[in-house]
Design brief:
By secondary structure, this protein is mainly beta. It has helices at residues 2-16, 20-23, 208-215, and strands at residues 26-29, 32-35, 42-50, 53-62, 65-76, 82-83, 95-96, 98-101, 105-107, 119-121, 126-128, 140-142, 161-162, 172-175, 191-194, 204-206, 225-229. The chain has one domain (38-229): L,D-transpeptidase catalytic domain-like, CATH 2.40.440. A hairpin with a 2-residue loop joins strand 1 (26-29) and strand 2 (32-35).
Length: 230
């Protein structure tokens, strides 16, 4: 019996240890904790440095190592700082921490050769729905098909974002998976987009040149994500 237990003990202990795959589900890049998806080999990190400023970096997994491909110190976050997603509420000006998918890109230009992400060119009547009474909350929708109170001003508690009213920051932009479950009043329209004049209202932003280059690098087959922290 002792010999049997001695033989089984290493096997039992091995079963209690995390597998290499489990151990690799979270990595730290530029001090930001990144929760990897299956197959993720491209990551954007946003590391708050001071106030609403952040360092934004694009990483790619190459030959088993994470390699920095692009970086800028002129990134921005929300005027309210950072918040945990579950504690965030609509209009508080905070940027949610954590790891979120980058499902598609959008902007004001016609699609260009070399852009691999799914892309939506903004057109007249496009809104990102912030109406808490709508089933389309936190989704892209055109007012021509209805389903939300598009006429409410953005300053209203249920106001939606008219995308063409933000032509400069949304010239190049990525949607994120924040609040993909549509928890009402938690917040909507959290993007990665071009810098404005100062802090964002909750998005992550970076210089136009950074976003323009990023459009040619991000590949949906590599399951890209954005990770936000400090």
């Amino acid at each position: 019996m002792r010999r049997l237990l001695a033989a089984l003990l290493p096997v039992l202990l091995l079963g209690l240890l995390p597998s290499p795959a489990d151990a690799a589900t979270t990595v730290r890049l530029d001090g930001v904790s990144v929760r990897l998806r299956a197959g993720t080999s491209q990551v954007v990190t946003a590391n708050r440095t001071r106030g609403y400023h952040a360092r934004v970096t694009f990483w790619a997994l190459q030959h088993g190592r994470w390699t920095k491909r692009l970086s800028t110190r002129d990134g921005r976050i929300g005027y309210g700082g950072l918040s945990r997603p579950a504690q965030r509420h609509q209009g508080d000006g905070t940027t949610p921490t954590g790891t979120f998918d980058l499902p598609f890109a959008f902007g004001t230009h016609a699609r260009k050769a070399g852009w691999r992400m799914g892309y939506h060119r903004i057109r007249k009547g496009d809104y990102w729905v912030g109406d808490n009474a709508s089933r389309y909350y936190n989704q892209l929708r055109n007012k021509s098909v209805g389903g939300f109170r598009w006429w409410l001003p953005e300053s209203d508690d249920n106001g939606s974002e008219r995308l063409l009213a933000h032509r400069a920051p949304y010239e190049y932009a990525f949607a994120t998976g924040f609040n993909a479950g549509q928890v009402h009043h938690r917040g909507f329209a959290i993007f990665l987009h071009v810098n404005g004049r100062g802090a964002t209202a909750g998005c992550v932003s970076a210089p136009r040149s950074f976003l323009k280059k990023l459009f040619g690098l991000v590949d949906p087959s590599r399951h890209p994500v954005i990770a936000i922290g400090a």
